[in-house]
Prior knowledge:
Protein name: Zinc-finger domain-containing protein
Organism: Saccharothrix syringae (Nocardiopsis syringae)
Region (Disordered): 67-91
Shape: elongated
Pfam families: zf-HC3 (PF16827)
Amino acid sequence: MPLRPFRWLPHDGQRHAVKEGTVAFEDTATLCGEELTIPAAHPTKTQWCWPTCTTCDTAWRQHEGIPLFPRQRTTTPHPATRGNTGKPAHA
């Protein structure tokens, strides 16, 4: 069984998530619902640099229990920033 149930695949100008185990020439759908046929050729280095489909990314993160990106800021400031006056500590 694969470590993750999905994998990334460049398609139509973005990197989409598809089910792990799909093979060349197999018809499938991305997590965002785009229908595609898995290509036989490996993606190019340039294609791997395409932006990630935000809908696929959100669906993957929800399935895996990973916080959505960008992470929401908490209302409690980080301890290192409490009382920060913007002045150097060693003036």
